[in-house]
Amino acid sequence: MKKPFLIYPVLYIFLFVIFTFAGFSQSQEKEKFNIKSQACLENVQFPVKIDTIIIDKNWRTRDPIILKELTFTAGDTVSEEMILKSISRVWNMKNFVDVDYCLKKDENDRNVLWFTAKDAFTVVPILSVQGSLQEYNIGLGVEDHNLFGRNIRLRISGNIGSLQKSFGFELGIPRQLLYRNMTLKTGFWAGGQKNYIIKDKEKQSGIAYDSKNAFLSIGNPNNEDDHYTFSPDLHISYLNHVTDSTFLDEGVLSMGDYTINKLGVSFSENIGTISYIRHQKDGFAAGISLGTGIGVDQNTKSYLNWGASAQYYKLLNKWVQLSVIFRYNGTTTDYPSLYYYLGASSVRGILTGEIAGKNVYVLNFGVSLTYLNRTWAAIEQSFYVNAGNGSMMFNDLFHSRPIMSIGTGFRFMIPMVPWAVIKFDFTYSGKGNNWFFLDM
């Protein structure tokens, strides 16, 4: 495997400075209004006509981006439900540390909606560490979830770890800038990867390869708006794998020697809505996907893949959250580099490859307790039970005993700086388990 080119730190710093100050390029001058009282109006009788809308405290996000997420415009008569739904839509952009509203009166007794959207710090150099006793991954790069204050997503990064070395970029264009709720996402990744099938903590076989992957996704996330409209997402990708068994651990059987070049086309559809308030979630979402890998040369065989997922989060109050998550993926490919290999990010306490094959599933039950939830500090403890399994044949997937784990995790966050997160997990999944996991 060739060692990927990691982007120079000078480039990280340059992009960090450019993207940060680009957010300040918009004028910070708000329209001047003479407000009778700085206090919010009390005992407001809805519906009420909104004569003026003022966006406040968005030091980075441009006003039109926020206004497009409101379900009304100045001059409309609105209900309280419309205002609360608009708040939820702005929260779901995931760029804000606080979202609220206040109704006031100007000097002419007109109703002014004072809409507060306080930006979090979303431009950061990436320094991430994930690891356990036997595996690790280190990421370095730069990321912005709100490029130029327009909710554009950009990530440029490289990764080096026990199983992979890669570099690349991802760019996402939000629906606020496109036609009819459309979203676009594109990117390119290159590097080296190796995976093993593990039984009883021993590596039975493995595959190592160089990889190149370019992709384009066209989305239409109507499900984020509390209603369902049939609007499947389209995903197109080009993938190249060239195997190199010399990078496998000594004594491990290689699962193949080949080169593949394929064009991937898939469709996915989602229903349901999950609402976000900082790190907490509430709601339900389910999705399915169906795709094909088409060989672009005579030596690459075509195949099908499919998947299904469901997530349910219930915020009982501002301290307690329940969660149930299920995910399944299947494929008909005979290329081992395209099998699914799940590790501690899916089921805490296991090694990558203990759950592997053409068919895999994961089921998670969790309870999260938020002890502190302030703008500058948040602390959460979670308790969970994970189960998962993998097989080459679908009929074997649910007939064999799944791998299970139980554990607890502590997450320390700074909501104003959403990238500043440290999570420790302590898990038990049987004898010789990978009991410790750090995500920073």
Strand and helix map with partners:
Blueprint: H1 9-22, E1 48-49, E2 52-56, H2 63-67, E3 77-78, H3 80-91, E4 96-105, E5 111-119, E6 123-132, E7 136-147, E8 152-161, E9 164-173, E10 183-199, E11 202-219, E12 233-243, E13 253-254, E14 259-277, E15 280-295, E16 303-315, E17 320-331, E18 340-342, E19 355-357, E20 359-373, E21 378-391, H4 394-397, E22 403-413, E23 421-428, E24 436-439
Parallel strand pairs: 2-5, 11-13
Antiparallel strand pairs: 1-3, 4-5, 6-7, 6-24, 7-8, 8-9, 9-10, 10-11, 11-12, 12-14, 14-15, 15-16, 16-17, 17-20, 18-19, 20-21, 21-22, 22-23, 23-24
Main sheet strand line-up: 6-7-8-9-10-11-12-14-15-16-17-20-21-22-23-24
Which descriptor suits the 3D outline? globular
The count of helical stretches stands at 4
Q: What is the oligomer described by this structure?
A: single chain
Q: In this structure, how is the largest beta sheet organized?
A: 16 strands, antiparallel, barrel
Let me know the number of strands: 24
Q: What is the count of structural domains?
A: 2
Tell me the CATH architecture of the largest domain.
Beta Barrel
Listing every helix as H and every strand as E from the N terminus to the C terminus, the arrangement reads: HEEHEHEEEEEEEEEEEEEEEEEEHEEE
